[in-house]
C-alpha cells in the first residue's frame, strides 16, 4: 500500500507538498519521499520512517512550484531516471503481477536494475516512450495489474490511473493550484476542494493551475477496490464520489438489518470499525459506546512491515474501557477479520478481563479468503482464518458468542455499485484482471 501526492502551483508548494504527503501516512509507514522542480532541475529526497519525523527538519533546498510525494509500506519512492525525454521522478501505487517477466525482458535488452521493485520496471517502461503520454500508454499495454502514478518532469506533472481504476486517485483545486492524490483527506486542510476523480484509464497533465486530459485508455469494466471504503482509506476521504465514512455507516447498517442481536451497547474496533459501529447503532437504535480507545501515539497495525511488528502494534494500540464493558452484552464491529489472532488473543481477552457478559462480533466485509494482487498488503491464503474455517469454526476459534459477516450483495448495495463494477477478489478468490 502506498500514498501518492502531486501538486502544481504558481508559487512555492513545498509546505503543501510536505503536509499533503503527511496526510497520506496511513497508507504506508516504512518509507517516504519528496521530489520537487523549480526551474533548475529535479530534486529528490527519500527517508526510511514517517513523514513528519524525518522531513520536518529536512526540507531546506526542496523549494519549488511543482512536486510529488510518496508514503510507502515497501520501497523508497519517488524514483529518479534520466531518459531521452529528460530527467523525471515517478511515484507509483499498485502491483505489477507480471513484473518478473517484464524485468527479465528488459534485462535481455540491456537494462540493469538496482532493486526488484515494481517502480523500477514501471519507470523503465515509461522511459521507452516517444514522450511521457506515449510511455505511459506503452507501459499500460505491457503490465498486468493495477497502478496509479504521478511523474514529475521539467514541463509539468503527468498522472495516470489504470483502466480498471483499482487504486483511488482524486483531483483537488484551489485558487492558483491543483493537486492529484490518492485520497481527498490529504488536501482538505490545505484549502483544496474536490474537483473530480481521475477517470479509469485517464492520463492527464497538470502545469501551473491547469489540468489537461491527454488520453483515456478505454476499459470494458471497472474494478474499484471495495476494501478502500471498508478499511484502507481515511474516513474523511471521498473516493470515486462516495464518502468513506458514509460507506462504513451503510455497511454497519446492513449488518444491523441482517444480523440483529439483543445487546446493551454497540462497540467498535477503532479506528476503521468506528464508522461501521455507528451505522450499526443508528440502524438498531442500540447506543454506541467506547468499548476500546485507540491510543493516539500507536501506529496502524495492518500496515506494519513484519508480522512481529503487526502483532506488537495490534496489542498495544487498543485500550479497553472497563466501565463501558463490565456486566454488559456487547456487539463489536470490525472492518475485517484477517488471521483472527488479534480478536482471539487480544480483544476478546481484554473484554473478558473487563467483565463483559456476551460478545457478538459483526464484520463489515465478507470472510477474507484470498490475497490481493492489486496493491493492498494482505496475508497469504494459508494465513487467512476464513480460508481455513467456516464462520461457525471461526466463531469458536475467536471464542465469542456470535459472529456474522456482511454478504457480498450487501457490500455492493452499501457502496452503491453493481458487483461487477467493484473488485471483490479478496472475498471471492476470483480475479478478473
Ligand atoms: S483484492 Fe481486495 S484489497 Fe485487492 S483490490 Fe480487490 S477488493 Fe481491493
Automatic annotation (TrEMBL):
InterPro entries: GATase_2_dom (IPR017932), Ntn_hydrolases_N (IPR029055), PRTase-like (IPR029057), PRTase_dom (IPR000836), PurF (IPR005854). It comes from the Bacteria. Binds 1 [4Fe-4S] cluster per subunit. Binds 1 Mg(2+) ion per subunit. Its EC number is 2.4.2.14. Mg(2+) binds at residues 272, 334-335. GO terms for molecular function: amidophosphoribosyltransferase activity; iron-sulfur cluster binding; metal ion binding. Its cofactor is [4Fe-4S] cluster; Mg(2+). It is an enzyme of class 2 (transferase). The active site is at residue 2. [4Fe-4S] cluster binds at residues 225, 372, 423, 426. Keywords: Glutamine amidotransferase, Glycosyltransferase, Iron, Iron-sulfur, Magnesium, Metal-binding, Purine biosynthesis, Transferase. It catalyses: 5-phospho-beta-D-ribosylamine + L-glutamate + diphosphate = 5-phospho-alpha-D-ribose 1-diphosphate + L-glutamine + H2O. GO terms for biological process: 'de novo' IMP biosynthetic process; purine nucleobase biosynthetic process. Pfam families: GATase_7. Residues 2-209 form the Glutamine amidotransferase type-2 domain. Pathway: Purine metabolism; IMP biosynthesis via de novo pathway; N(1)-(5-phospho-D-ribosyl)glycinamide from 5-phospho-alpha-D-ribose 1-diphosphate: step 1/2. In the C-terminal section; belongs to the purine/pyrimidine phosphoribosyltransferase family. This is Amidophosphoribosyltransferase. It comes from candidate division WOR-1 bacterium RIFCSPLOWO2_02_FULL_46_20.
